[in-house]
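User: Could you walk me through two proteins back to back? I'd like the raw sequence and the structure tokens for each, with a short line separating them so I can tell where one ends and the next begins.

Assistant: Of course. Protein one, sequence then structure:
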Amino acid sequence: MRIAALLMAASAVWADPGAAVTVAGQAKQPQVAVDADGGVYVAMLREGNIEVSISTDRGKTFSAPSVAIDAKGAAKGGMQRGPRIAVDGKRGIYVTAPVALGGTESDLWLTVSRDGGKTWSAPLRVNDAPGKAPECLHWLAVSADGDAHVAWIDSRPMGAGPNSLAYARVTGGTKAEKSQQLAGPVCECCAPGVSVDAKGNPLVIYREGGKKSEREIYALISTNEGKSFGKPVRINKGDSKVDG
């Protein structure tokens, strides 16, 4: 009975989410993070830059967007190719985005704000091999103490294919460690996923690639805060029946 009552209550909430709130006009590729007190943080592509808007009243109203990464109006995105955002235990805001800063190829850049989005740090390149993240497919997760964990599709080959799943940890939002190639080949059009547990250990999920009749989904787990990962574990029990 208790479970049934909880399900009914949850259904009532989901059935009536309330009126939609406009965060910003002329925006695309939004991503959302929520802090422990219900503060809502939205990263987006807007007017060719990477911008962030914040709500301190649980999503009722939002601040005017601030520019987190100034791409001189040249930032582009689509098909999962946009910014990611996360918040640490002290409400530090972390944003990653694929942007061509000073070059023709997009790299992955990270910026951090520790004053509620008023100011942002100078962008830090996450991928240590410049120009090797042209697909722009990536994901970000941040531990409570402020370590950023980023995974992306890298054009460096691994295994019997042309690409790999790369990963790097950025300590304190200021120092990107040497990247690791975790698996390959991987699906060239599927963004990986990243999550971090309470102890700061990342889990990375990805879809395999290569010339196969089916491409399955795998997870990689670290028990030492991203220094190394265990063997890939298949997630889906049934075959995907999808080859591309």
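----
Protein two, same layout:
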Amino acid sequence: MSGEDADPDYCPRCGVACEPLQEYCLGCGERLPANRGVVGVLVREWQRRLPWYPGDWVWPALLFLTVAILATAAAVAAGSSGGSGTTIVAQPTVALGPGRRQAAPPATAPGTVPAAPQPTVTTGPLPKAPGAPSTPARTMPNPAGAVASWPAGTTGYTDVLESLPLASGRQTAAARARTAKLAGLPRAGVLVSSAYASLHPGYLVVFSGVYRTPAEASAGLAAAHSHGFPDAYVARVTH
């Protein structure tokens, strides 16, 4: 295939792009979250806009907070409009003599005591406390700096920019892929050669582009050579 595909998802551990139905990250081996349904849509939209995703517990917490706010507002409105006053009139007595008592005139300034509003109690399960999710929260790298991964189940051709030994570390390979991306090379990313039968195992391969034919891949070599990758060559990638 040629050109950019639809916006991919990203591994929450290493930031490598992944396909929507991919179960494991091809870069670090992390099991990817199964973001499906309404929660999956909300998670993907969050991850596209914010660099940190706290975990799926945030959605029931937000729902509980909304219900609590609405219940509190209803209780305050009911207390301010439904409280009726009660008038209290004092009736003191005055002694007129031995064995005789007469009621005094009623007080001229009765007081009004408002009725106290009834308390409102919201019941329901409490969400998990922020900062203590079931699994430790990880800080996800900014998707703008993420590098591409080879599409799962795809056989095609690419421009191999560099092949680095595994001992060099993924961060070094990802940095080279970002350099290629900033230089304008298409779909720059990193793959582990051991996962592909057509590549020599033991390397982190920095590549550019996913092509259907060798001719399409060869057309991109000139750009790779002129942007700091003079040893780039065409290679077939197959599982």
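The longest strand covers residues 156-165.

Let me know if you want the two compared in more detail.
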